[in-house]
From TrEMBL:
<dbReference type="InterPro" id="IPR000675">
    <property type="entry name" value="Cutinase/axe"/>
</dbReference>
<keyword id="KW-1015">Disulfide bond</keyword>
<feature type="signal peptide">
    <location>
        <begin position="1"/>
        <end position="19"/>
    </location>
</feature>
<dbReference type="InterPro" id="IPR029058">
    <property type="entry name" value="AB_hydrolase_fold"/>
</dbReference>
<protein>
    <recommendedName>
        <fullName>Cutinase</fullName>
    </recommendedName>
</protein>
<keyword id="KW-0378">Hydrolase</keyword>
<dbReference type="Pfam" id="PF01083">
    <property type="entry name" value="Cutinase"/>
</dbReference>
<keyword id="KW-0732">Signal</keyword>
Length: 232
């Protein structure tokens, strides 16, 4: 598969998305913020195979809404090749280093991790190396189309927040999966039939794997999950 295959297909899909706007979240009361809310946070965004350096199409709508609704947010786009070799080690290292370097200058910073496809694998691989205060600083991880999706984890949901992909495996689960101590602060979204994260009902990078950028339900899940984890 050519290195730009996923990006080309996702881009084409994004251009054909229905013009129907994403439903606006209900306006919450401007008081009674939960204790421990994050006043400053960084979203670490890790793109999928073939997407150019920058923010993944899987999260652009989520992050536009999130940073508009929750003050203090910044977006960091993980630096790595994201090429067809599927070697995401540089991405994993960059995620780890970004958290450590940020906390050295701002020890109260919060983080939300995001990963699409190969970017989800890079994020999962980083989790086992994020410990102590760094682990505490990461408030949530939101993954889509994760090849390291492991059957049976409580964090597994389908694209509608349901359980149709709770008990399926991704195509690279044998290389590692979400550590148990991360399950409670992770949402691992796998669309039914996505052959990357659901090998029971799909095969490889198929049309379903490319639906996340155009899915209003996936975007809703991403915004609601991050707001909850940030204490907003």
């Amino acid at each position: 598969m050519h290195a730009n295959t996923l990006f080309t297909l996702v881009s084409a899909l994004a251009l054909t998305v229905s013009a129907a706007p994403v439903a606006e979240a209900e306006v919450a009361a401007p008081v009674d913020k939960r204790a421990g809310a994050c006043s400053s946070y960084t979203i670490i965004n890790t793109r999928g195979t073939g997407e150019p350096q920058g923010q993944s199409l899987g999260f652009t709508t989520i992050n536009r809404r999130l940073t508009a609704e929750v003050p203090g947010g910044k977006i960091y786009n993980t630096v790595y090749f994201a090429d067809f070799s599927q070697n995401s080690a540089l991405g994993t290292a960059d995620i780890i280093n970004k958290i450590s370097s940020t906390l050295r200058t701002n020890p109260n910073e919060c983080f939300i991790l995001q990963g699409y496809s190969q970017g989800a694998a890079a994020t999962v691989n980083a989790m086992q190396h994020i410990t102590g205060p760094n682990f505490d600083a990461v408030k949530g991880a939101f993954l889509i189309g994760n090849p390291n999706h492991k059957a049976g984890l409580a964090c597994n949901v389908d694209i509608n927040g349901g359980t149709t992909t709770r008990n399926v495996n991704g195509l690279s689960v044998f290389l590692g999966s979400i550590p148990q101590n991360w399950v409670s602060k992770t949402l691992d979204v796998c669309a039914f039939g996505d052959g990357v994260c659901d090998t029971t009902h799909g095969v490889g990078i198929n049309a379903v794997h490319l639906t996340y950028p155009s899915s209003t339900s996936s975007q809703r899940l991403g915004v609601e999950f991050a707001k909850k984890q940030l204490g907003a």
